[in-house]
């Protein structure tokens, strides 16, 4: 839910105005072999990033000044510090030009020397002519403190187009956030929202209550409350009061406002569409936190997301800013030797942080968690709403689809829209051509922003044509094509299908035969040797070097050969198989214990002769966990009956994926996903958060696949 740092496409927007200029000048004087001015033109040209061909930079010569720029990168001056070596304003970045065997400039190496993402990026020269790639519109910046109804003042940054015509009235685009807004400048808004910035809006970025420069008390995902007194506040009232202040105090606004945000800001964007202020004309909740117990950040179907809750609560509740949690220890080892969340919280001295206390005392779906849930408030469509999410969102996949599902039945005016693409959390903000090792063949994020997001706000805030989405835009992976549907899941042109877990590790579209044995697969699950959820070592969620953002597309071969899970596979496919819509697991299983977790992964197995790096790759398409004790009720957990078959049915979320001819479809079943999810002791205890050491026992898990107990996945396929 939390997006940090500068990607390559955003790197130059992170520059500051030359605090290190004296250092650069001093460094330049130490070199005697700098390129002469009359030769400096040889660097001019256009350069494409080698790993991301959508990122193009242009080096231009303006008089005797060499600059570098990109579509999202404001022109920055290059200052010579050595042969073929230049520093960029501030000294935080430098550029080294690369020559081929003939001595001709063939590329450049961009190096970030400091900040959260040090490292280098390589570009190849493809054109010897420079170009004007950047079309930034300058914005003036203002900071304000806005009083709320209870007297608390909230901080905001306001950005308005510079040099606009006198009296030009513009709509607002607002994002409210717990992550701080001091970094929002003219360069930043142009880099993150270039299409909208070029059109011209009054951008507002606001710190929510109790965060950064805003006054008051921060409450994690503050629940919507009944407003019985003038001092009853929640995110809907703070949004109302913020808008009232803006309308009255920001000159030359046209009285319209749009609200957007990713993750926690997505939760806040949806709050703007509940009991909406009359000025709100459009909202776009993107990967919104919606129900943090049922399927977003902190729990999934009752299973506690231990590492995430541990790190995130410290970041937001342990301080007024959100400095990252770092760890030199493999978090797999840390959580294993601290036994349970109570032990881990005590080790970090975080057990008294507000949300950590609730984790420890209310692990079930209590009124506290239910009151925080947003979807129950979505009983009518108050404003046009664009929901956005990614297939491989490691944080908030659930919220996007849950909010759409809650709003859509009330959408009598056809103003609720959904976009699902091949992205991780917030990945649509970048180019979106690749994710980890997976290449989608096109800049999916760019296309979304230019053809859907920008036209959406242009239509509802400026009455401009161009927004043509009828309902749902879905990027079908495998074949890598955008699809348009009249609803989600789509109904027209699709039919239901099931994929059955059969004996001998077989996976088939045909149900089990009457004579098939009951147990299709079994394994022994040992809590002392849990299945890791990603390759080790496992860093803190946002720690240095963490692979958190792309773990959902990691090659699953690193665990699929273990003995403590069960794999079921089709033969090599003789034709393409497309799975579309909500994928639901219907599992019949038994355990020798009195509790247990069940994780199901639907995996695309690439052929061994696929082009590198995908040869033999095992790519998860959808996946999800279910905690057995909640089989009958999320509010009232019960012990499982040992050795008794029980049915567990839960959603693995939406998919739109084609398993290509020559691939295999695999379903993997396991009982731990550590340490993202805490270990289930596999013997029933009242509270797993503080389970005693003796409760952790290995158990035998049996997966059934027979006519009576047909374990299977349900989804839709094209007719």
In short:
The protein has 719 residues and is α+β, with helices and mostly antiparallel strands. The chain has 4 domains: 120 residues, Lipocalin (Beta Barrel), CATH 2.40.128.50; 251 residues, Alpha/Beta hydrolase fold, catalytic domain (Rossmann fold), CATH 3.40.50; 73 residues, Orthogonal Bundle (alpha-amino acid ester hydrolase ( Helical cap domain)); 225 residues, Sandwich (Jelly Rolls), CATH 2.60.120.260.
The total domain count is 4
Mean pLDDT: 92
Tell me the total number of β-strands. 33
The radius of gyration computed from the alpha-carbon positions, rounded to a whole number of angstroms, is: 27 Å
Assigned CATH architecture of the largest domain: 3-Layer(aba) Sandwich
CATH level 1 class label of the largest domain: Alpha Beta
Q: In which range does the helix fraction lie? A: 10-25%
Q: What overall geometry do the principal axes of the alpha carbons give?
A: globular
Low-confidence stretches: 1-33
Strand % is 25-35%
Can you list the strand order of the major beta sheet? 9-10-12-11-13-14-17-18-21-22
What's the CATH topology name of the largest domain?
Rossmann fold
């Amino acid at each position: 839910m939390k997006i940090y740092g500068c990607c390559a496409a955003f790197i130059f927007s992170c520059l500051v105005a030359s605090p290190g200029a004296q250092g650069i000048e001093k460094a330049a004087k130490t070199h005697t072999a700098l390129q002469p001015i009359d030769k400096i033109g040889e660097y001019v040209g256009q350069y494409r990033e080698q790993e991301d061909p959508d990122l193009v930079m242009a080096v231009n010569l303006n008089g005797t000044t060499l600059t570098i720029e990109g579509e999202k990168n404001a022109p920055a001056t290059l200052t010579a510090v050595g042969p073929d070596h230049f520093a960029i304003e501030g000294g935080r970045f430098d550029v080294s030009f690369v020559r081929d065997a003939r001595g001709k400039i063939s590329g450049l190496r961009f190096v970030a020397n400091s900040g959260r993402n040090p490292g280098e990026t390589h570009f190849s020269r493809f054109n010897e002519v420079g170009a004007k790639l950047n079309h930034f519109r300058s914005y003036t910046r203002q900071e304000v403190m806005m009083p709320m109804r209870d007297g608390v003042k909230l901080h905001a940054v306001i950005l308005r187009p510079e040099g606009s015509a006198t009296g030009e009235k513009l709509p607002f685009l607002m994002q409210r956030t717990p992550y701080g807004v001091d970094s929002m400048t003219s360069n930043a808004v142009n880099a993150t929202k270039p299409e909208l910035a070029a059109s011209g809006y009054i951008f507002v970025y606001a710190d929510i209550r109790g965060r950064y420069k805003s006054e008051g008390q921060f409450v994690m995902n503050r629940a919507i409350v009944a407003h019985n007194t003038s001092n009853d506040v929640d995110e809907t009232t703070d949004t109302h009061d913020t808008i009232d202040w803006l309308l009255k105090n920001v000159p030359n606004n046209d009285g319209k406002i749009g609200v957007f945000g990713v993750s926690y800001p997505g939760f806040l964007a949806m709050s703007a569409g509940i009991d909406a202020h009359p000025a709100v004309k459009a909202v776009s909740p993107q990967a919104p936190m919606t129900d943090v117990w049922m399927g977003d950040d902190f729990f999934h179907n009752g299973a506690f997301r231990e590492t995430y809750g541990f790190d995130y609560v410290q970041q937001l509740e342990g301080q007024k800013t959100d400095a990252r949690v770092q760890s030199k220890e493999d978090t797999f080892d840390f959580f294993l030797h601290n036994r349970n969340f109570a032990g881990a919280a005590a080790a970090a001295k975080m057990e008294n942080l507000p949300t950590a206390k609730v984790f420890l005392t209310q692990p079930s779906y209590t009124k506290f968690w239910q009151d925080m849930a947003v979807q129950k408030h979505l009983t009518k469509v108050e404003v046009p709403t664009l929901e956005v999410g990614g297939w491989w969102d490691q944080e908030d996949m659930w919220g996007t689809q849950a909010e759409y599902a809650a709003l859509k039945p009330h959408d009598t005016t056809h103003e609720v829209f959904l976009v699902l693409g091949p992205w991780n959390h917030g990945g649509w903000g970048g180019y979106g051509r690749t994710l980890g090792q997976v290449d989608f063949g096109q800049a999916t994020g760019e296309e979304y922003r230019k053809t859907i997001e920008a036209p959406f706000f242009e239509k509802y805030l400026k009455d401009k044509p161009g927004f043509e989405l009828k309902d749902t835009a879905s990027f079908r992976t495998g074949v890598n094509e955008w699809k348009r549907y009249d609803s989600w899941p789509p109904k027209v042109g699709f039919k239901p299908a099931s994929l059955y877990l059969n004996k001998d590790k077989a996976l088939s579209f045909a149900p089990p035969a009457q004579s098939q044995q009951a147990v299709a697969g079994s394994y022994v699950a040992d809590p002392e040797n849990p299945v890791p959820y990603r390759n080790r070592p496992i860093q803190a969620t946002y720690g240095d070097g963490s692979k958190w953002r792309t773990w959902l597309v990691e090659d699953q071969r690193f665990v699929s050969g273990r003995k403590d899970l069960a794999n079921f596979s089709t033969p090599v496919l003789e034709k393409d198989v497309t799975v579309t819509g909500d994928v639901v697991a219907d599992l019949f299983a038994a355990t020798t214990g009195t509790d247990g977790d069940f994780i199901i992964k639907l995996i695309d197995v690439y052929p061994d002769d696929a082009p590198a790096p995908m040869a033999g790759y095992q790519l998860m398409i959808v996946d999800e966990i279910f905690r057995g004790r909640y089989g009958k009720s999320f509010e009232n957990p019960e012990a499982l009956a040992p050795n008794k078959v029980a049915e567990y049915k839960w959603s693995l979320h939406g998919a739109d994926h084609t398993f290509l001819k020559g691939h295999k479809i695999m379903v993997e079943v396991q009982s731990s996903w550590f340490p993202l999810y805490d270990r289930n002791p596999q013997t029933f205890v009242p509270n797993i958060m503080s389970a005693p050491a003796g409760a952790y026992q290995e158990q035998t898990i049996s997966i059934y696949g027979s006519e009576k107990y047909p374990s299977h996945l349900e989804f839709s396929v094209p007719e």
